[in-house]
Amino acid sequence: MDWDWSYVWDFMPQILDGLVVTLKATVLGSLLAFGLGLVWTLLFRVPSRWVRWPVRAVVEFVRDTPLLVQLFFLFYVLPTLDISFSPLVTGVIGLGLHYSTYTAEVYRAGIEAVPRGQWEAATALSLPRTHTWVAVVLPQALRRVVPALGNYVIAMFKDTPLLYAIAVLDMLKQAQEVGAESFRYLEPMTVVGLLFVVIAYPTSLLIRLLERRLGTH
Amino acid sequence: MAPTDSATEERTPTGGTTPPLIRFDRVVKRFGGVTVLDELDFSVAAGRNVTLIGPSGSGKTTILRLLMTLIRPDGGSITVDGDNLTHMVRRGKLVPADEKHVRPIRKKIGMVFQQFNLFPNMRVLRNLTEAPVRVLGMDRDEAEIRARELLEMVGLADKADAHCAHLSGGQQQRVAIARALAMRPKVLLLDEVTSALDPELVAGVLDLLRDIAVSGDVTLVCVTHEMGFARDVSDQVLMFDAGRVVESGPPEKIFSDPDHQRTRDFLRAVR
């Protein structure tokens, strides 16, 4: 089997369309995972166990079931309850929800790593509780967790091909369609794989750099 | 209520007695099964700087933490400037104080910690202005002017825009002192404030505290192992052991002619 460059140039625009969808899903999914994860973490700390326990149970359940099953559930079961979204939105919700259960743990660790003395100093200055969270604890906690969150963004990026299963026109889906038309899969699948590397590797280097920058402070 | 301990019978220079700024009344504190404070009574008069001395584990730091409301007592009551810090009246009954009751009383108290506890996510100036702006409702410009004055006082006027992590331990502790003073407390609690410092940085911090002590703007309550400092700044020294006051008196008396063998043993050990 020979590598055919002209074939590559022909299908490239279609693959890049897919890349845009993949990146969209990753960015929006990450934002959802960052926000929702923080909500879980803060709910874990609510004094009432009637809030804490159900939240814990839901988060644990989501974390321990496969993402693909969740995507199918969102895509095929929710519409039977008259709740339906476009494939991409469904994918973003699935990715964001799934990864929020990981980011919640990241935040929890970050918050616990803020020394107790910081809380005590805030009390000694009579700072209100909410202000202590917003101005003292969370800024320190978030700074610590940026690298860990970045690693989950990369993991999510590499999970986006699962959206193929719910008809999102991501990179993999486009490559598969290209291949199906011409019965040549070598070039499209290779290109897709390389594009993942070309994006994921520099991103991980960037995160490592960020880690060092934040660590020196 | 009649004074129950020699520590409560401090005389003012004019010979009369003033209502105490701080009073502990049969205060009990346990950690797990260990009783750290056992029905402790003592009081501190306004403007009379106090130093608590005694072996580690004798409950000195616990007293400061109770005053700062970082922990709650298991029994007894604490009064600060006439307000009950531990109890409040609800429907004619005395019940444990809630956050809302404690808040205005806590504002009269400031604390400086062994580990400084500056907020590393804020620059030096912001450390000093955050609470005055948020808690006292001070105008930000006004708070900054006041913060710069305080930094000047602690000798760090040029560090207003520095990151806390770039300061030495001694500088951080001086910022922490300025931060506490920015809230204009009536009582300043000093919890072994030089223990975490390199030896060569201790003198600067102690000199600053001596100046604050003589200024008379704030009543100091110190826990320290620096006996020289205790002798210089305090009007009254309380010797603690096992959660009780062994003896109390002016520093000249406690350091040169203590009544109790325990005090003599302790002072010999720390010298």
Automatic annotation (TrEMBL), chain A:
GO-annotated biological processes: amino acid transport
Pfam families the record matches: BPD_transp_1
Domain (ABC transmembrane type-1) ranges: 19-207
Compartments it resides in: Cell membrane
Keyword Ribonucleoprotein: no
Superkingdom of origin: Bacteria
Alphabetical list of Gene3D superfamilies matching this protein: MetI-like (1.10.3720.10)
Sequence intervals crossing the membrane: 20-46, 67-89, 191-210
Broad class of where this protein is predominantly found: membrane
MF-aspect GO terms: transmembrane transporter activity
Keyword Glycosyltransferase (UniProt): no
GO-annotated cellular components: ATP-binding cassette (ABC) transporter complex
Keywords, alphabetical: Amino-acid transport, Cell membrane, Membrane, Transmembrane, Transmembrane helix, Transport
Lipid bilayer topology: Multi-pass membrane protein
Family classification: Belongs to the binding-protein-dependent transport system permease family.
The protein's name: Ectoine/hydroxyectoine ABC transporter permease subunit EhuD
The species this protein was found in: Wenjunlia vitaminophila
Automatic annotation (TrEMBL), chain B:
Localization per record: Cell membrane
Species name: Wenjunlia vitaminophila (Streptomyces vitaminophilus)
Principal subcellular localization: membrane
Family stated for the protein in its record: Belongs to the ABC transporter superfamily.
GO cellular component, one term: plasma membrane
InterPro entries reported in the protein's UniProt record: AAA+_ATPase (IPR003593), ABC_ATPase_HisP-typ (IPR030679), ABC_transporter-like_ATP-bd (IPR003439), ABC_transporter-like_CS (IPR017871), Ectoine_EhuA (IPR014343), MetN_ABC_transporter-like (IPR050086), P-loop_NTPase (IPR027417)
Record-level Gene Ontology MF annotations: ABC-type amino acid transporter activity; ATP binding; ATP hydrolysis activity
Region of interest: Disordered: 1-20
Presence of the UniProt keyword RNA-binding in the record: no
Topology class, membrane: Peripheral membrane protein
Pfam families attached to this UniProt entry: ABC_tran (PF00005)
ABC transporter domain boundaries: 22-267
Entry keyword annotation includes ATP-binding: yes
Protein name: Ectoine/hydroxyectoine ABC transporter ATP-binding protein EhuA
This protein's UniProt keywords: Amino-acid transport, ATP-binding, Cell membrane, Membrane, Nucleotide-binding, Transport
